[in-house]
Amino acid sequence: MSQQRIDVEGVLSTLREKGIIEDNAKVMGTMSGTTDGLVYTLAVHEEPKYIFKIDHKESIRVVSKLHQAYINSPLLPKLIYRDPVHDFIVYTYVAGTTHYNRGAKKEWLSRLVQDLLNHYSISHDTDKWGRLERLRDSWREFNERSLEGARMNLGDLLPNEDYERVKSLLDSVSQVDGKYLLHGDTGVHNFVYRDNEIVGVIDPSPMVGPVIYDYTYAYCSSPDDLDLETLLTTYDLLDHSSIDKSRLIDNVIFQLYCRIGICAKVHPHDLSDYLHAWEYWRGYLN
Questions:
Q1: Which of 72, 113, 196, 255 is the most exposed place for a label (fewest CB within 10 A)?
Q2: pTM, rounded to two decimals
Q3: For residues 83-105, average pLDDT
């Protein structure tokens, strides 16, 4: 894909002619997309209604696959049109804000579990694991790479002893109940909130792996309410995972360590709160 060779107005004109979008649908503005992608908001009667996204063909293909697989999820935007050659997609706009005004984690995480994660289905498309654009030979390899990336980002923020103890969890967190098609980036930065409730989940980075990954990723994606009660209450709602409490905690500790690594690199304003949460969870490390 090269967005320079896509005539956006020409494509929109064709979509209007086909009745896919309204005759008066027009570009309202651009939004931040991937490094190479472009995202346009389309408005009808001056109100945002659609997202028009241009990206690499493989990215468009895998994102379309996720939207089609979970068409009945109340939280995913509805796919309106997929370009046959995978240059772009059009899906519904979800009004609200990401990150903020999200209410209690127990509430939004419960709805995420019930209205997205419990819709997940087994993937039979590949014998590999991880992100569909960068597949790995095993779930353990995916976890090993995540751990080493976090260690590099953390530097000396956490002692090497913590790294070694988290590394010792690899056997536990690499056991899987099944391989599912996952959203892959279930964090508050991709959750749309309105009136202190989660109303949408956007910008997937599709992958194949155990459902517990998307669950713990969401749980650890903000430093608030990282307590055992919130974890156990919301996990109890999850249909596609049957691990015991000990392995659940192992997965949270592993995910939290990786999350702190990401935080140190791109979200330093949350770092002190995450480090405080780490003191709580490292008490569960053997």
A1: 72
A2: 0.95
A3: 95
